[in-house]
Design brief:
The chain is an alpha+beta fold. Among the domains are: about 1-40 and about 65-70, no CATH class; about 170-275, Immunoglobulin-like. The chain is built from 4 helices and 13 strands. It has helices spanning about 30-35, 80-125, 125-135, 245-250, and strands at about 1-5, 10, 25-30, 145, 155, 170-175, 185-190, 195-200, 210-215, 220-230, 245, 265, 270-275. The longest helix is centred in the middle third of the chain and has 47 residues, at about 80-125.
Length: about 280
């Protein structure tokens, strides 16, 4: 048994260390000493009356249960500290493992959802996917045949090449200030904008073979002229000169024909222009 030294309460539970009434440390009971201090009371005697204190300030203050100043907290042993530290570290490891597991699960869910969405888009719009793969050629057609809604087969269209405009012709005769036409004399067409020679007629085998020429040219605007090629010493200084189709030749080379202005001829696709005389050797051009 144990006794509270403050309130003198006796406890039979030897495992208790502190008084349940005032928190004081319990002490073992000396049975022999208690027997000597036991007071015999008459059976008919009444206990002395309890004195009531009127002044609250004079009333004894009872210490709070379990918080007596006489109670000294027990120091934590090394084994208990190690157990508590091990438990704390285990809790931290379990918490970290839980966070990592949640992160991995969230990543797997996001990737899986993205794959499902991409598969659904491909399933719903396979044409759009095919067009995306063919971004390198905006005019590319899907290889093979395409099935229409009625179940038939539509052949892949073949691009149509742009047709080249049909050429035209410039035809006429050549003039030369002598009784005949030199065999090295040819007619040529010159681009009116760039002044580059486009085409010339073939050299005639004999200067008496005639004066007619024919030039095949693309559609456009031209100056037409005659010139003497190298190989005939009789042409003298006139070799290499350009004798154009001018107002003088169109007028008939008479006394009243004074203009030597070059004339632009315009050839349209498939058109043939006739009567274009070349050889104004008298013009200072």
């Amino acid at each position: 048994m144990k006794r509270c030294p403050t309130c003198q309460r006796i406890y039979t539970d030897d495992t208790l260390r502190f008084c349940l009434e005032d928190g004081a440390a319990l002490r073992p009971v000396d049975a022999r000493a208690d027997a000597d201090r036991t007071l015999a009371l008459d059976a008919g005697a009444e206990p002395p009356p309890t004195k009531v204190l009127d002044d609250p300030a004079l009333a004894p203050t009872r210490p709070a249960l379990g918080r007596s100043s006489a109670a000294t907290p027990r120091a934590e042993s090394t084994w208990e500290a190690e157990q508590r530290r091990t438990a704390t570290q285990g809790e931290k490891r379990r918490s970290t493992a839980g966070v990592v597991a949640l992160t991995i699960l969230a990543t797997v869910l996001v990737l899986g959802l993205g794959g499902v969405i991409a598969w659904q888009l491909m399933k719903d719009d396979p044409k759009g996917v095919a067009e995306t793969r063919n971004t390198g050629n905006t005019n590319a057609n899907v290889t093979g045949n395409t099935n229409n809604s009625s179940g038939g087969v539509v052949p892949t269209p073949t691009p149509t090449a742009t047709p080249t405009p049909a050429s035209g012709f410039i035809e006429g005769s050549m003039a030369y200030p002598s009784d005949g036409i030199p065999g090295v004399m040819v007619a040529c067409a010159e681009d009116a904008e760039t002044r580059a020679t486009v085409v010339c007629s073939e050299k005639r085998d004999d200067w008496e073979a005639g004066v007619h020429y024919s030039l095949k040219v693309p559609p456009g605007r031209y100056f037409v002229y005659a010139t003497l090629l190298a190989g005939d010493d009789s042409v003298g200084e006139m070799q290499g000169k350009k004798a154009y189709h001018t107002d003088y030749l169109k007028c008939g080379m008479g006394e009243n024909c004074n203009s030597h202005r070059r004339i632009v001829v315009e050839v349209k696709p498939g058109q043939t222009l006739n009567g274009v005389t070349v050889g104004d050797w008298w013009a200072d051009l």
